[in-house]
Amino acid sequence: MTGNKKLGLTARIVIGMVAGIAVGFLFKLLLAGQEERVLHLLGMDIPLKALFIDGFFHIGGEIFIASLKMLVVPLVFVSLVCGTCSLSDTSALGRLGGKTIALYLITTAIAISLAIFAALLIGPGEGIQMQSDASFNPSEAPALSQVFINIFPSNPIESMAKGNMLQIIVFAVLFGLAMAMSGKAGERLAAVFTDLSEVIMKLVTLLMNLAPYGVFFLMAKLFTTLGFETIASLAKYFAVVMCVLIIHGLVSYAVILKLLTGLNPIIFFRKMQDAALFGFSTSSSNATMPVTMETVTKKLGVKNSVASFTVPLGATINMDGTAIMQGVATVFIAQVFAVDLSVSDYLMVILTATLASIGTAGVPGVGLIMLAMVLQQVGLPVEGIALIIGVDRLLDMTRTSVNVTGDAMVSCIVGKSEGAFDKAVFDDINAGSKEEDVDFHKLR
Known about the structure:
Na:dicarbo_symporter_sf; Dicarboxylate/amino acid:cation symporter; Na-dicarboxylate_symporter; mainly alpha; two-stranded antiparallel sheet; globular; transmembrane helix
């Protein structure tokens, strides 16, 4: 058996995911109506829920997520400083930022337009009279003036401690520009940051090899608690959101990538497998960012000078998946409450959701806050959000996969337009795979 080729990372993650789902289902059946069920084994009483679900599964999943999040701030700061200080033309930074933000806004507008069209065509809320005992009290979104003020950090160390991505990005860009203008001192410091970047990416590789176990714990915990009776009652809504997510993630991105770069979308999607699976299992673009960054630079061929800017910014403001949920949810809630929305209302939904993707960046619970803003804008009851919260967790996993794919797609477009793209790496189907497997025995 030693001569057999080791399974690739993607295959191991899929195995971990499937095994976790199966184990989760098993525990859900075992605990049906018996939350405190005890297993009698070898003369011992083993509480299944406390030991496995609240114990092993919860601890293992939380450690995995924490390990990924641990890398986000140092990765963003170090990579962005390296990328900024290496720009030969500092004026290119404004052009780079303009292209990136414009593309993210355009894809978000396409996403929500597609969602509204599909929801109006299928009518997921027609003929449904749903009642919910749950309530939803949205957090207040910040004023536009405060959004711009909050982008600039008064204390960059505090911003890093709190994981405020927009403030970290601003500070890293300014720090990198200062390094580029500091002559020999800047060059010496740049060499240190380049070495730091290599070490951090190696740490990403180490953690990626532990991903199958982390994914197993996350899936096992989720599927022991997921209420499928809720999904059944919202099956049409769930199906519409899921279908639009898949169409946008596979068709819209493929068309945009092909039209703007001429690159092969099939190669792109094949190389995005690991990052998309990470996004699905973690439900967090920020937690997936280290994997997305490695995929974009080492597998897709985007230079770090571009990827270090586009990926962190995308993880913060690119919300195509969330926009799709908002579009379908708006139509669904309007139909459930029998409210007729005009064409101008739907155009307002598209505009509000697109701009809110930047305005609410970094706010906890951003998806539901954005949806509350959209509903209020067109006069729909915010309480309607309580109807869809039950299935939002599973949809959130798919939304994150779409978001990280969008981050990588925009990175490729911007990188190619800026001449910071290696097509040979993109076309090489094995690019980046040589570091995929780490022999942990050599680390002892």
